[in-house]
Amino acid sequence: MKPSEARLARVAVRAEDYPSDGRAEIALMGRSNVGKSSLLNRLATTSGLARVSKTPGRTRELHFYLVEEGHYLVDLPGFGYAKTSKQRREEWAHWITSYIDAREPLVLVLQLVDIRHEPQPIDHQLRTALAERDLPACVVLTKADKLSRGAAVGAADALRRVWRLDPSLPIIATSSETGSGIPELQKLIQQRVAAFAAAGKTR
Fold first, then answer.
1. pTM to 2 decimals?
2. What is the mean pLDDT of each run of 10 residues along the chain (203 residues)?
């Protein structure tokens, strides 16, 4: 796949800083160190677009990446990192909640979960928050290259049972190392963006 034209368009800490052009937005959310930046780079097919840090919890703002001048990939602060102060975690939680509560162009949330580990309480809390707001969400399992194909399928099935997900909702196992699952996820994003453009409305 050829590289797309993607760029960092906006860094925001307040609603006033968010883009106002009405383009569709796809938000990436997950615990710190889940592989969010690596996945974002793969989705945008632009190496080095989002900084991959060796220090979990580094992202402290919302980063809006404009892809092909058509839609935004929104990198939200990672949460749940133990070495982050309580005040900082509360600030991040406030930013995330404020964003998903009021952001009309938000057409899809990608909730990232490390496929190697069972979801933590904070993962369950985010899942509940998304469901309560009736937000369209796709569970994305990261680091699938670390497991066999059979184990990856088993992990997806187990998560579907635990969260009682609708069978029609996708759970996509991905690997930023090998690229597996990326085309499927890109297709889902394009479908949501196209539906947004065709209907002229969100969600």
1. 0.87
2. 75 90 94 90 80 53 90 86 60 77 91 93 88 91 94 92 83 94 94 90 53
Query: Helix or strand or coil: residue 138?
Result: strand
How far is CA 124 from its chain centroid?
15
Strand pairing of 106-114 and 71-75? unpaired
Block residue for tokens 């991959």? 52
Element (H, E) at 152: helix 149-162
Contact call for residues 9 and 65 (beta carbons, < 8 A): yes
Dist. CA 44–CA 12, nearest whole Å: 20
Which DSSP helix (H) or strand (E) runs through 196? helix 182-199
| Alpha helix positions (H), 17-108 | 36-43, 86-102
Strands 71-75, 62-67: parallel, antiparallel or unpaired by DSSP?
A: antiparallel
